[in-house]
Amino acid sequence: MIFASDNWAGASQPVMDAMVRHNTGAAPAYGTDPLTLKVRDRFREIFETDDLTVWFTATGTAANALTMAACARPGGLVLTSDIAHVLCDEWGATEFFSHGMKMVPVETRNGRISAQALSRELAKHPAGSRFGTPVAVSLTQASECGTVYPLDELAALTGVAKERDLVCHMDGARFANALVHLGCSPAEMTWKAGIDALSFGGTKNGCWCAEAIVVFNQDALRDLAAHRSRAGHLFSKSRFVAAQLDGYLENGHWLDSARHANAMASRLAEGLTASGHALAHPVEANEVFPVLDFATIARLREAGAAFYEWPEIEAGEGTSGVRLVTSFATTSEEVARFLEIAAG
Amino acid sequence: MIFASDNWAGASQPVMDAMVRHNTGAAPAYGTDPLTLKVRDRFREIFETDDLTVWFTATGTAANALTMAACARPGGLVLTSDIAHVLCDEWGATEFFSHGMKMVPVETRNGRISAQALSRELAKHPAGSRFGTPVAVSLTQASECGTVYPLDELAALTGVAKERDLVCHMDGARFANALVHLGCSPAEMTWKAGIDALSFGGTKNGCWCAEAIVVFNQDALRDLAAHRSRAGHLFSKSRFVAAQLDGYLENGHWLDSARHANAMASRLAEGLTASGHALAHPVEANEVFPVLDFATIARLREAGAAFYEWPEIEAGEGTSGVRLVTSFATTSEEVARFLEIAAG
Amino acid sequence: MIFASDNWAGASQPVMDAMVRHNTGAAPAYGTDPLTLKVRDRFREIFETDDLTVWFTATGTAANALTMAACARPGGLVLTSDIAHVLCDEWGATEFFSHGMKMVPVETRNGRISAQALSRELAKHPAGSRFGTPVAVSLTQASECGTVYPLDELAALTGVAKERDLVCHMDGARFANALVHLGCSPAEMTWKAGIDALSFGGTKNGCWCAEAIVVFNQDALRDLAAHRSRAGHLFSKSRFVAAQLDGYLENGHWLDSARHANAMASRLAEGLTASGHALAHPVEANEVFPVLDFATIARLREAGAAFYEWPEIEAGEGTSGVRLVTSFATTSEEVARFLEIAAG
Amino acid sequence: MIFASDNWAGASQPVMDAMVRHNTGAAPAYGTDPLTLKVRDRFREIFETDDLTVWFTATGTAANALTMAACARPGGLVLTSDIAHVLCDEWGATEFFSHGMKMVPVETRNGRISAQALSRELAKHPAGSRFGTPVAVSLTQASECGTVYPLDELAALTGVAKERDLVCHMDGARFANALVHLGCSPAEMTWKAGIDALSFGGTKNGCWCAEAIVVFNQDALRDLAAHRSRAGHLFSKSRFVAAQLDGYLENGHWLDSARHANAMASRLAEGLTASGHALAHPVEANEVFPVLDFATIARLREAGAAFYEWPEIEAGEGTSGVRLVTSFATTSEEVARFLEIAAG
């Protein structure tokens, strides 16, 4: 009963198979191998555009921070949600890579920034402000609360951002989970909605360590390749990241994995609600945030369930907010057992 | 006939097997998993000391540059060989991670700095110099010319360095190749010889992407864990690097691979010499630097041999310096065929 | 009627006289001249300790940011008031100089952080948090609202900070104004109250551009001299900053100037209150924050008064918060005329 | 007999007078005052172009390093002379401000890089090199050896640089000394010769601390104002730098000072040659580099002469290279006495 995080899983079978399959023969180093080029082309197909560059990394923090490095300006501000991973969980990577841009938290509801909230925050930072000048906005899709921005909200947000010439970044650590929830195309959820650059996550959804920076607006970012190299994020045996993504993207495996994880989360949500537990946020991707009483939590822990309590959630006396994350590796049996114990 | 680089190979079978083997079940993220702890302990055994910390990374550039970040001081100087990878081939990573330390090249002979040369260079930079203050020295073992520092030379170099309180770093991208050449213990080649921190390379010798920063002198480096995290070099599914190193270090596989690569290089050297080709450097590890005439080069290329010409080598008219690198994946057949063609 | 800022004035007569007086003959460059040493000794007298180093700079932003650079750690957090100059008005200097430390705003009342608020904020950032690790706290004395921390509040704040091993920094851009308000000694307001390093401001109180970083806790900061030099903040003709401070500190001129400025502010406060205008903050130094109706503001502007409206102040309909700053150069006549017009 | 450095002098009388003269009344802060605008316009007149921006700083190191910050790219290289101040005497400021660009020394003769040497060095760094990519070249005019680039050599150098799209920077710490030597116009020595940005030095030639970054090619530099602000190099009472430059540029004072300093240097050179002392470099500006025997050096020191021995100069046994620097403050009497003693 592993619901601690989707990064507690290993690699999915198709990803592992691809790694084994591509581990033959010699290949040129540093990203010039045929497999890297093949996967790059696959990204162009998936996103329905040739005006796209893609840069592999092995961690989401690298993908996010390198993107910010490539649009950094002195005294710049990056607006994010007040609970964004890029703000709260990356050890100051963006501040470091961008040589000191300031992160500005924008208030959220269920993990999502509204266009109004973004607008209000931007109004506090007119051009020339000594606090700093807005440079970029980073939106997490799916959000850290397991919710998903609908396409019209994304468009409204990037619309507000473009009025101030901001670079629009999407942190897609759980990109696939959001995509299958919306049922739209990758293009619709990104460049058609005004996104300039995407951190495309593979790790949480079945890769061992494979992410990609997908750039739709080449003018918005500068020297991204050089930023990646000098940060030690270009791999000599780079086909190793490409191999993972090859397996990941093949035959819709990535979408199947995300659908499975989302379905497991939905089932958790339904079951918990049915047995009287409240949910702090709507469940739209692969995360569930129930409020559980202490006795239930104790029973679950005793039975070996792994999950984190989530202090950000306001909970009444004798109860605690909890975060449950599902993944490609989550089984129906785990979910059923968890729900049984939670039902008391 | 792949002699372009040891990073053109994939992963060795034992490494690949370990990756598959450890890809089961769930594990805590960010380096707190049991496998990471197990491999850390394995490092303590191998280096015969418990006063050792080890931090996994996936690229050698990250290992080198993060080490430099952890000992960085404003206006600091890092002395290296004038052909050091850390100076010439890492896109300015050390300068970036160390917030602008200056790299100072020291003259080399066959890729090795002498204690005298280091001493002379240090004398140019007295304390308080406005050019900068020496902070660290980085020695590559085996060197970029395929030579190996003997233990007494290492001790002499670190002795000179310690007089100025320098941090002594070893870039061990080809650590195993040097080790089996000397036939000494890992401890003798590192902390017993005055090394404070080691970039322990696994990638070139059979891993897909596994390196480790091994710190012997805990006082010399500061906040290394935090430097690694905020640089995006801590993996969520961190067991994946540990798994590679587990397979790498098991049953002496790493030493066997290095012995094989070195033997292939020796055979190349002997064969080329026998057929009248000169060598620019002694062959002590897994690199061979012959000077070949244009006709020979053309014949080899035509037969499909992959290698780089090496402009750093001075070569007479009608000839060119060439670098040949062997690896665990090099076969006797490749070597024999190469020699046959080279013999004309 | 110049109440826009205390940095709209030039240099006071004693400061200007000292600049002229010391502009004779030759002197060694880069801070090794006798005048620099003399003024350094003067600081030791004034702060009643020989365990003090002092580093001149020419801007307050440099003084603040260099201090933060010298205590920076990767992933570090600097806690400040939510309206602190160092956070809101220095173009991201601290973020830049500290290589990306994150500024964390702490809520204030009348510009002051309480020990309770600091404690609450620190509790949100336990050791090892991926958001970041608290490294320093910066307190502005006098605060940006013209209020002054009493000695016991300072001690309480540094007490809370020391429990987490924070470096305690005082931004003393208006140090003299705070000092004469409290009527205590410079030692009492700094190291005796737990302050590790002080940005000692001279510019706003009569210098043209003279600040000093005064370090009481030598272990807390590292390589400050080197940070200053490589940032271009060490002057070749460094006696020029020393000369200003020589004039500034002579015969109690700095305290007289601050007393005058404070007195002018008090008179403004009393007069405005007497004519029915409310004040947003207590007046304890040289700043007054009245809430004025639009008609009054218009009358004052028409008469040539220079001041800024202050949107941070909540004001009822038809009114606006205003900031008035007095300095050594403010005259009784200016104040009287302003009050007369404001009285309607 | 002060020949140690031109920065051992104080401020010249016209500069000091201007400081006193402009120290009246109030002025808006942070570079928006009328005097700053007036001096900016004066620069446009002097350089005969309106397509020029100018940013005041107080140190030459700041001017140089901020310029490099504004053209910095990841993995970038800055080519300079091997004895350039920006490389050897600024504590790593350029490396820091540019977030780790690497300085590449180019060999010099009498302090000057030749177009051929620049070309040769550039050839070593083709696009995409992992050592780094050339971004800028910095030329010191007058050079650190007291020589001056003729206009045709400047044009040849910038011509070579432009082929690789380098930003051409001139470190003009001794700009006026070079200008009066060549007898050309400021425009001819800068933008007409291909210079994109100039560090215009005032300090060594009569100011207390006044430099200016003059940008001719607005596209080559980015966000210079923001770089300056966040580095703490924008002064609140900014008219104080403007005041110095106002006095400096008025009535040709700057050119008169430079002519005087150059004349004093010429006289030193002639006198020393006449009494049999060799010169290491031609004397074209305000520096003289004689080779003196130990007895002469001892006699001069005993008589109170201040100067530095210059180990960079190769000198025979019993002799030592020496640097003599003249300034606006050097008197004929000092020179005469020095020559008399040196003559033995």
UniProtKB/TrEMBL annotation, chains A, B, C, D:
The keyword ATP-binding does not apply. GO terms for biological process: amino acid metabolic process. One of its GO terms (molecular function) is lyase activity. Its cofactor is pyridoxal 5'-phosphate. The keyword Cell inner membrane does not apply. Residues 3-292 form the Aromatic amino acid beta-eliminating lyase/threonine aldolase domain. It comes from the Bacteria. Belongs to the threonine aldolase family. This is L-threonine aldolase. It comes from Stappia indica. The lineage of its organism: Bacteria, Pseudomonadati, Pseudomonadota, Alphaproteobacteria, Hyphomicrobiales.
